[in-house]
Amino acid sequence: MSASGGTKAIVAALGANLAIAVAKFVAFLFSGSSSMLAESVHSLADSGNQGLLLLGGKKAQREATPQHPFGYGRERYIYAFLVSIVLFSVGGMFAVYEGYEKIKHPHEIEAWYWPVGVLVFAIIAEGFSFRTAIKESNETRGSLSWKEFIRRAKAPELPVVLLEDFGALIGLVLALAGVGLALGTGNGVWDGIGTLCIGTLLIIIAIVLAAETKSLLLGEAAGTDQVDKIKAAVVDGETVTRIIHMRTLHLGPEELLVAAKIAVQHDDTATEVANAINAAEARIREAVPIARVIYLEPDIFNEAAAAAGTNPATAPDADPADSGH
Fold it and tell me: Which residue, of 150, 167, 191, 265, is most buried by count of CB atoms within 10 Å of its CB?
Protein backbone atom coordinates (compact mmCIF):
# COMPACT_ATOMS: atom_id res chain seq x y z
CA MET A 1 0.00 0.00 0.00
CA SER A 2 1.31 3.40 -0.91
CA ALA A 3 1.87 6.18 1.52
CA SER A 4 -1.32 7.82 0.31
CA GLY A 5 -3.14 4.76 1.57
CA GLY A 6 -2.52 5.93 5.14
CA THR A 7 -0.69 2.86 6.44
CA LYS A 8 0.54 4.72 9.53
CA ALA A 9 -3.00 5.85 10.35
CA ILE A 10 -4.34 2.30 9.93
CA VAL A 11 -1.65 0.74 12.13
CA ALA A 12 -2.11 3.43 14.79
CA ALA A 13 -5.88 2.87 14.78
CA LEU A 14 -5.43 -0.92 14.93
CA GLY A 15 -3.13 -0.75 17.95
CA ALA A 16 -5.36 1.72 19.77
CA ASN A 17 -8.56 -0.22 19.10
CA LEU A 18 -7.14 -3.57 20.22
CA ALA A 19 -5.98 -2.08 23.54
CA ILE A 20 -9.27 -0.23 24.01
CA ALA A 21 -11.39 -3.29 23.18
CA VAL A 22 -9.69 -5.36 25.89
CA ALA A 23 -9.97 -2.54 28.44
CA LYS A 24 -13.67 -1.95 27.67
CA PHE A 25 -14.55 -5.63 27.93
CA VAL A 26 -12.82 -5.89 31.31
CA ALA A 27 -14.78 -2.82 32.44
CA PHE A 28 -18.02 -4.46 31.28
CA LEU A 29 -17.26 -7.64 33.26
CA PHE A 30 -16.71 -5.66 36.47
CA SER A 31 -19.48 -3.06 36.03
CA GLY A 32 -22.21 -4.69 33.94
CA SER A 33 -22.50 -1.50 31.84
CA SER A 34 -24.17 -2.12 28.48
CA SER A 35 -22.41 0.96 27.10
CA MET A 36 -19.12 -0.75 27.88
CA LEU A 37 -20.22 -3.96 26.15
CA ALA A 38 -21.38 -2.04 23.07
CA GLU A 39 -18.17 -0.01 23.02
CA SER A 40 -15.98 -3.13 23.39
CA VAL A 41 -17.74 -4.74 20.41
CA HIS A 42 -17.40 -1.44 18.52
CA SER A 43 -13.63 -1.35 19.16
CA LEU A 44 -13.27 -5.02 18.26
CA ALA A 45 -15.17 -4.39 14.99
CA ASP A 46 -12.93 -1.39 14.29
CA SER A 47 -9.85 -3.56 14.83
CA GLY A 48 -11.20 -6.07 12.32
CA ASN A 49 -11.90 -3.20 9.93
CA GLN A 50 -8.31 -1.98 10.07
CA GLY A 51 -7.19 -5.55 9.43
CA LEU A 52 -9.43 -5.63 6.35
CA LEU A 53 -7.94 -2.36 5.07
CA LEU A 54 -4.39 -3.70 5.47
CA LEU A 55 -5.37 -6.97 3.75
CA GLY A 56 -6.99 -5.06 0.88
CA GLY A 57 -3.87 -2.95 0.42
CA LYS A 58 -1.72 -6.09 0.30
CA LYS A 59 -3.94 -7.88 -2.22
CA ALA A 60 -4.14 -4.79 -4.44
CA GLN A 61 -0.37 -4.98 -5.03
CA ARG A 62 -0.63 -8.24 -6.98
CA GLU A 63 0.57 -8.18 -10.58
CA ALA A 64 -1.92 -8.14 -13.44
CA THR A 65 -2.88 -11.52 -14.91
CA PRO A 66 -4.49 -12.59 -18.21
CA GLN A 67 -7.77 -12.95 -16.34
CA HIS A 68 -7.39 -9.54 -14.66
CA PRO A 69 -5.35 -7.53 -17.20
CA PHE A 70 -5.87 -4.22 -15.42
CA GLY A 71 -4.56 -5.54 -12.10
CA TYR A 72 -6.13 -5.69 -8.66
CA GLY A 73 -6.14 -2.05 -7.61
CA ARG A 74 -9.87 -2.08 -6.89
CA GLU A 75 -9.37 -4.67 -4.13
CA ARG A 76 -8.84 -1.68 -1.84
CA TYR A 77 -12.34 -0.43 -2.68
CA ILE A 78 -13.87 -3.85 -2.06
CA TYR A 79 -12.31 -4.20 1.38
CA ALA A 80 -13.28 -0.64 2.28
CA PHE A 81 -16.88 -1.52 1.37
CA LEU A 82 -16.66 -4.61 3.59
CA VAL A 83 -15.61 -2.29 6.42
CA SER A 84 -18.87 -0.35 6.10
CA ILE A 85 -20.84 -3.61 6.27
CA VAL A 86 -18.98 -4.77 9.40
CA LEU A 87 -19.42 -1.35 11.02
CA PHE A 88 -23.16 -1.42 10.28
CA SER A 89 -23.87 -4.99 11.34
CA VAL A 90 -21.38 -5.83 14.09
CA GLY A 91 -20.98 -2.33 15.51
CA GLY A 92 -24.18 -0.40 14.86
CA MET A 93 -26.92 -3.05 14.96
CA PHE A 94 -25.43 -4.81 17.99
CA ALA A 95 -25.28 -1.52 19.92
CA VAL A 96 -28.89 -0.68 19.00
CA TYR A 97 -30.03 -4.12 20.18
CA GLU A 98 -28.02 -3.89 23.39
CA GLY A 99 -29.34 -0.38 24.08
CA TYR A 100 -32.93 -1.50 23.56
CA GLU A 101 -32.46 -4.44 25.94
CA LYS A 102 -30.90 -2.20 28.59
CA ILE A 103 -33.74 0.33 28.35
CA LYS A 104 -36.27 -2.50 28.61
CA HIS A 105 -34.46 -4.21 31.50
CA PRO A 106 -32.32 -1.56 33.26
CA HIS A 107 -30.01 -2.30 36.18
CA GLU A 108 -27.61 -0.21 38.18
CA ILE A 109 -23.94 0.07 37.20
CA GLU A 110 -21.55 -1.64 39.58
CA ALA A 111 -17.92 -0.66 40.21
CA TRP A 112 -18.44 2.67 38.42
CA TYR A 113 -14.72 3.50 38.45
CA TRP A 114 -14.01 0.77 35.89
CA PRO A 115 -16.11 2.17 33.03
CA VAL A 116 -15.22 5.78 33.81
CA GLY A 117 -11.48 5.02 33.96
CA VAL A 118 -11.55 2.95 30.78
CA LEU A 119 -13.54 5.60 28.90
CA VAL A 120 -11.03 8.29 29.82
CA PHE A 121 -8.17 6.01 28.69
CA ALA A 122 -10.05 5.21 25.47
CA ILE A 123 -10.62 8.89 24.66
CA ILE A 124 -6.89 9.54 25.00
CA ALA A 125 -5.96 6.53 22.84
CA GLU A 126 -8.56 7.33 20.17
CA GLY A 127 -7.44 10.96 20.21
CA PHE A 128 -3.90 9.82 19.38
CA SER A 129 -5.19 7.63 16.54
CA PHE A 130 -7.40 10.45 15.22
CA ARG A 131 -4.47 12.88 15.35
CA THR A 132 -2.35 10.48 13.27
CA ALA A 133 -5.13 10.13 10.69
CA ILE A 134 -5.54 13.92 10.47
CA LYS A 135 -1.79 14.40 10.04
CA GLU A 136 -1.59 11.88 7.17
CA SER A 137 -4.73 13.28 5.54
CA ASN A 138 -3.37 16.81 5.60
CA GLU A 139 -0.45 15.63 3.45
CA THR A 140 -2.82 14.70 0.61
CA ARG A 141 -6.01 16.74 0.93
CA GLY A 142 -4.44 20.07 -0.08
CA SER A 143 -6.99 22.90 -0.05
CA LEU A 144 -10.02 20.60 0.12
CA SER A 145 -12.35 20.85 3.09
CA TRP A 146 -12.76 17.71 5.21
CA LYS A 147 -16.14 17.01 3.63
CA GLU A 148 -14.70 17.40 0.13
CA PHE A 149 -11.70 15.23 1.02
CA ILE A 150 -13.90 12.37 2.22
CA ARG A 151 -16.10 12.63 -0.87
CA ARG A 152 -13.33 13.01 -3.47
CA ALA A 153 -10.50 10.86 -2.10
CA LYS A 154 -9.66 8.00 -4.46
CA ALA A 155 -7.69 6.09 -1.79
CA PRO A 156 -10.40 4.84 0.61
CA GLU A 157 -8.28 4.04 3.67
CA LEU A 158 -7.81 7.53 5.12
CA PRO A 159 -11.49 8.57 4.86
CA VAL A 160 -12.47 5.26 6.46
CA VAL A 161 -10.04 5.67 9.37
CA LEU A 162 -11.00 9.33 9.81
CA LEU A 163 -14.72 8.55 10.03
CA GLU A 164 -14.14 5.53 12.27
CA ASP A 165 -11.97 7.50 14.70
CA PHE A 166 -14.35 10.46 14.68
CA GLY A 167 -17.28 8.14 15.35
CA ALA A 168 -15.32 6.36 18.08
CA LEU A 169 -14.55 9.64 19.87
CA ILE A 170 -18.18 10.78 19.71
CA GLY A 171 -19.29 7.32 20.82
CA LEU A 172 -16.97 7.43 23.82
CA VAL A 173 -18.38 10.79 24.86
CA LEU A 174 -21.91 9.38 24.52
CA ALA A 175 -20.93 6.32 26.57
CA LEU A 176 -19.38 8.53 29.26
CA ALA A 177 -22.53 10.66 29.34
CA GLY A 178 -24.74 7.57 29.61
CA VAL A 179 -22.68 6.05 32.40
CA GLY A 180 -22.48 9.42 34.21
CA LEU A 181 -26.24 9.99 34.06
CA ALA A 182 -26.91 6.41 35.14
CA LEU A 183 -24.63 6.87 38.15
CA GLY A 184 -25.98 10.33 38.98
CA THR A 185 -29.65 9.36 38.82
CA GLY A 186 -29.36 5.73 39.88
CA ASN A 187 -31.37 4.84 36.77
CA GLY A 188 -29.73 2.33 34.41
CA VAL A 189 -32.01 3.45 31.56
CA TRP A 190 -29.55 6.26 30.81
CA ASP A 191 -26.83 3.70 30.14
CA GLY A 192 -29.15 2.06 27.62
CA ILE A 193 -29.96 5.39 25.98
CA GLY A 194 -26.24 6.09 25.62
CA THR A 195 -25.76 2.68 24.01
CA LEU A 196 -28.68 3.32 21.62
CA CYS A 197 -27.14 6.65 20.58
CA ILE A 198 -23.79 4.94 19.92
CA GLY A 199 -25.48 2.38 17.67
CA THR A 200 -27.36 5.07 15.73
CA LEU A 201 -24.12 7.01 15.21
CA LEU A 202 -22.29 3.91 13.92
CA ILE A 203 -25.11 3.09 11.50
CA ILE A 204 -25.02 6.65 10.07
CA ILE A 205 -21.23 6.49 9.60
CA ALA A 206 -21.51 3.04 8.00
CA ILE A 207 -24.11 4.33 5.51
CA VAL A 208 -21.86 7.28 4.57
CA LEU A 209 -18.88 4.94 4.06
CA ALA A 210 -20.97 2.52 2.01
CA ALA A 211 -22.20 5.31 -0.28
CA GLU A 212 -18.71 6.69 -0.89
CA THR A 213 -17.02 3.33 -1.47
CA LYS A 214 -19.88 2.21 -3.74
CA SER A 215 -19.11 5.17 -5.98
CA LEU A 216 -15.45 4.11 -6.12
CA LEU A 217 -16.42 0.52 -6.89
CA LEU A 218 -18.63 1.63 -9.78
CA GLY A 219 -15.66 3.52 -11.23
CA GLU A 220 -14.87 7.21 -10.83
CA ALA A 221 -13.22 9.51 -13.32
CA ALA A 222 -10.05 11.44 -12.60
CA GLY A 223 -10.36 14.65 -10.64
CA THR A 224 -10.92 17.95 -12.45
CA ASP A 225 -7.31 19.06 -11.96
CA GLN A 226 -5.98 15.80 -13.40
CA VAL A 227 -8.35 15.96 -16.38
CA ASP A 228 -7.17 19.50 -17.14
CA LYS A 229 -3.52 18.39 -16.96
CA ILE A 230 -4.17 15.46 -19.29
CA LYS A 231 -5.95 17.66 -21.84
CA ALA A 232 -3.11 20.17 -21.77
CA ALA A 233 -0.53 17.40 -22.17
CA VAL A 234 -2.20 15.66 -25.12
CA VAL A 235 -2.43 18.62 -27.49
CA ASP A 236 0.86 19.89 -28.93
CA GLY A 237 -0.75 22.15 -31.55
CA GLU A 238 1.27 20.60 -34.35
CA THR A 239 0.56 16.91 -34.87
CA VAL A 240 -2.19 16.56 -32.24
CA THR A 241 -4.47 19.55 -32.76
CA ARG A 242 -7.25 18.81 -30.25
CA ILE A 243 -9.08 16.19 -28.19
CA ILE A 244 -12.28 15.07 -29.87
CA HIS A 245 -13.50 13.26 -26.76
CA MET A 246 -11.93 11.62 -23.72
CA ARG A 247 -12.79 9.35 -20.82
CA THR A 248 -10.84 8.57 -17.64
CA LEU A 249 -11.36 5.83 -15.07
CA HIS A 250 -9.62 4.93 -11.81
CA LEU A 251 -8.51 1.29 -11.93
CA GLY A 252 -7.33 1.78 -8.36
CA PRO A 253 -6.35 4.67 -6.10
CA GLU A 254 -2.98 5.10 -7.82
CA GLU A 255 -3.77 3.80 -11.30
CA LEU A 256 -5.67 5.73 -13.95
CA LEU A 257 -6.95 4.64 -17.35
CA VAL A 258 -7.08 7.32 -20.08
CA ALA A 259 -8.90 6.74 -23.37
CA ALA A 260 -9.21 9.52 -25.93
CA LYS A 261 -9.91 10.17 -29.57
CA ILE A 262 -7.47 12.81 -30.80
CA ALA A 263 -7.44 14.93 -33.92
CA VAL A 264 -4.34 14.75 -36.13
CA GLN A 265 -3.39 16.48 -39.39
CA HIS A 266 -5.11 14.89 -42.41
CA ASP A 267 -1.89 14.69 -44.40
CA ASP A 268 0.25 13.08 -41.67
CA THR A 269 1.88 9.77 -42.49
CA ALA A 270 1.30 6.66 -40.38
CA THR A 271 4.77 7.03 -38.91
CA GLU A 272 4.11 10.65 -37.95
CA VAL A 273 0.81 9.72 -36.31
CA ALA A 274 2.41 6.84 -34.38
CA ASN A 275 5.21 9.11 -33.17
CA ALA A 276 2.66 11.76 -32.18
CA ILE A 277 0.69 9.23 -30.11
CA ASN A 278 3.85 7.99 -28.37
CA ALA A 279 4.87 11.55 -27.59
CA ALA A 280 1.39 12.39 -26.27
CA GLU A 281 1.42 9.32 -24.01
CA ALA A 282 4.80 10.37 -22.62
CA ARG A 283 3.49 13.90 -21.93
CA ILE A 284 0.41 12.49 -20.16
CA ARG A 285 2.50 10.25 -17.89
CA GLU A 286 4.79 13.15 -17.05
CA ALA A 287 1.86 15.43 -16.22
CA VAL A 288 -0.16 12.77 -14.33
CA PRO A 289 2.14 9.92 -13.20
CA ILE A 290 -0.74 7.67 -12.11
CA ALA A 291 -1.97 7.53 -15.75
CA ARG A 292 -0.63 4.02 -16.29
CA VAL A 293 -3.00 2.71 -18.99
CA ILE A 294 -3.43 5.03 -22.01
CA TYR A 295 -5.30 4.43 -25.25
CA LEU A 296 -5.21 7.19 -27.90
CA GLU A 297 -7.15 6.81 -31.15
CA PRO A 298 -6.24 9.19 -34.01
CA ASP A 299 -8.97 10.72 -36.13
CA ILE A 300 -9.63 13.68 -38.45
CA PHE A 301 -11.53 16.55 -36.86
CA ASN A 302 -14.73 17.48 -38.69
CA GLU A 303 -15.84 21.09 -38.28
CA ALA A 304 -19.34 20.41 -39.60
CA ALA A 305 -19.95 17.61 -37.11
CA ALA A 306 -18.61 19.77 -34.28
CA ALA A 307 -20.92 22.65 -35.23
CA ALA A 308 -23.92 20.32 -35.42
CA GLY A 309 -23.03 18.66 -32.15
CA THR A 310 -24.10 15.27 -33.47
CA ASN A 311 -21.27 13.14 -32.16
CA PRO A 312 -22.87 10.50 -29.87
CA ALA A 313 -19.49 9.48 -28.44
CA THR A 314 -18.91 12.79 -26.67
CA ALA A 315 -17.85 12.04 -23.10
CA PRO A 316 -19.14 13.93 -20.05
CA ASP A 317 -15.70 15.45 -19.47
CA ALA A 318 -15.18 16.56 -23.07
CA ASP A 319 -15.65 20.06 -24.41
CA PRO A 320 -18.90 20.10 -26.48
CA ALA A 321 -17.18 22.38 -29.00
CA ASP A 322 -14.60 19.67 -29.65
CA SER A 323 -17.05 16.87 -30.41
CA GLY A 324 -16.81 16.57 -34.19
CA HIS A 325 -14.91 13.86 -36.02
Answer: 191
